[in-house]
Design brief:
The protein has about 200 residues and is mainly α. The protein folds into two domains: about 50 residues, Homeodomain-like (Arc Repressor Mutant, subunit A), CATH 1.10.10.60; about 130 residues, Tetracycline Repressor, domain 2. Helices cover about 75% and strands about 0% of the residues. The longest helix is centred in the C-terminal third of the chain and has 27 residues.
Length: about 200
């Protein structure tokens, strides 16, 4: 029976995190299906028994990878979410997304979307977990737009939730095309178009 994260020592937390980080890197680079427990063991520099001390099986480890990748993607954006109630704040978020994609050479796309494309059709629990990850992302966008709406800077008929969905969908589509074309241009166009739509609804 694997040990629960809430009962871990500081050293245990660090070992568990090292295992999850290694698994996340491998699954992002090679894919979930082709990443084995042995691959993770070797990359993390731990033993099989250590892995099974923290995780019941590979499925359990994948669940942890989803949480890890969600935090890695969203936590750097959280300071920006608090400023999404202005067009300047929205453009700063856009610039962050474009710069981050460029820093990675437009390779890999979105880590959360990468997991979704591999797991959503054959692992219902993973699909629901990943849907929650995207909901968390959408909520971060929506809260700023909702403040803009409440403050009267968006027209009354504007729908902050729909606008947040459009921004997130534009980001995901742009990241996919940037990955394929190895340039941030499609991402820039997609996000600029979405932001122009938001701007068209300003009062």
């Amino acid at each position: 029976m694997p040990i629960k994260p809430g009962t871990l020592t500081a050293k245990g937390h660090e070992t568990r995190r090292r295992i999850v980080a290694a698994a996340a890197e491998l699954m992002f680079d090679r894919g979930v299906a082709t990443t084995t427990i042995e691959d993770v063991r070797d990359r993390a520099g731990v033993s099989n028994s250590q892995i099974y001390h923290y995780f019941a099986d590979k499925t359990d480890l994948v669940r942890a990878v989803i949480d890890f990748q969600t935090d890695m993607v969203l936590e750097p954006q959280e300071p920006l979410f608090s400023r999404l109630d202005t067009m300047q704040g929205l453009r700063e978020w856009r610039d962050f997304a474009v710069t981050r994609s460029g820093d990675f050479g437009c390779r890999g796309g979105c880590p959360i979307a990468s997991l979704a494309s591999q797991l959503a059709e054959n692992d219902e629990a993973a699909r629901l977990q990943l849907a929650h990850s995207f909901q968390r992302w959408s909520s971060g966008l929506r809260e700023g737009l909702a403040r803009m709406h409440q403050q009267g800077r968006l027209c009354p008929e504007a729908d902050p939730e729909a606008l947040a969905t459009a921004l997130l969908a534009s980001l995901q589509g742009g990241l996919l095309l940037a990955q394929l074309q190895r340039t941030t241009k499609p991402l820039e166009v997609a996000l600029d178009t979405a932001l122009a739509h938001v701007e068209s609804q300003l009062t």
